[in-house]
Amino acid sequence: MTAAIHPRRVGDIEVTVLSDGYLDAASLAVVRNLPPNPEDLIRRQGGRVPPRISVNTFLVKSAGRIALIDTGSGDSMGPTLGQLPRALAALGVAPDAIDTILLTHMHPDHSNGLSDAAGRRLFPNAEVVLHENEIPHWFDDAAMARAPERQRIRYFGQARQQIAPYRDRVREFRAGEVFPGVTAIPIPGHTPGHTAFLIASGNESLLVWGDTVHIPELQVPRPETTMMFDTDPDAAAASRVRVFDMAATENLPVAGMHLHFPGFAHMTKSAGGFALVPET
Ligand SMILES: [Zn+2]
Question: Per the confidence metrics, is the pTM higher than 0.70?
Answer without folding.
Answer: yes
